[in-house]
Fold this protein.
Amino acid sequence: NTKEDPDLRKPIIAGNWKMNMTNTEAKKLIGEIIPLVKGADVEVVVCPNLTCLAAAVELTRGTGISVGAQNMHWEPKGAFTGETSVAMLKDIGVTHVIIGHSERRAYFAETDETVNKKVLVALENGLTPIVCVGESLGQREAGKAADVVSHQTAAALKNVPAGKADRVVMAYEPIWAIGTGKTATAQDANEINTVVRETLAWLFGSEIADRVRIQYGGSMNAKNADELMAQPNVDGGLIGGASLKAADFSKIVLFGK
Ligand code: PEP
């Protein structure tokens, strides 16, 4: 239980801004967030739109806040109009990348296979992948949440070398909880996060699995963050809507205080 040994897994709170915030708006929001999260003892990541990444890196330099992209392509370069390579992200100082968000799986045809290719490329190139998994409402109601999430986790991490596995950040995001205001109960979130950890243990051994941070995401906000973060297998949050307001996001970052 890392709540007794916080050094094992440093909590990680990431804001997924999705297709919100122009560059001008993003710079303002980052300017508001910086003083509010100063001194937080968690890893803080903001993931603005691609057009804001370079400015975000410049603005957060020296603040302890990291910048993540919301997606990338697995090929190193070439004729892939509209796509972004890992080298392009690294070159401007991006350190994290969200991979396999359910919106990308649903609207942009991402599959377990493309997710896996992206995870491997991120790890090979030293970017921290935030790998999203989660069941639909129908799958939950059919009692398949644990199976679906375990399968997605194993598929996303296929061929990941054990030596790099603890650099992965997992994000359990039940689809029915994303952007709906319906949060999983803290117990449900912990139950599936535990399934993710058991899957990691099966893949890489329990010593490595115990070092992997597993976030919860899905209508996490300033009010429910304390209870979710108190769960033994919830090591962070991936925050959508509530990450767009500095006051709300910073309250989540400062959970428990
Ligand atoms: C997300 O999309 O990653 C997310 C968790 O969104 P929200 O917090 O708005 O539910």
In short: Residues 16, 173, 178-179, 217-220, 238-242 surround phosphoenolpyruvate (CB under 6 Å). The mean pLDDT is 96.
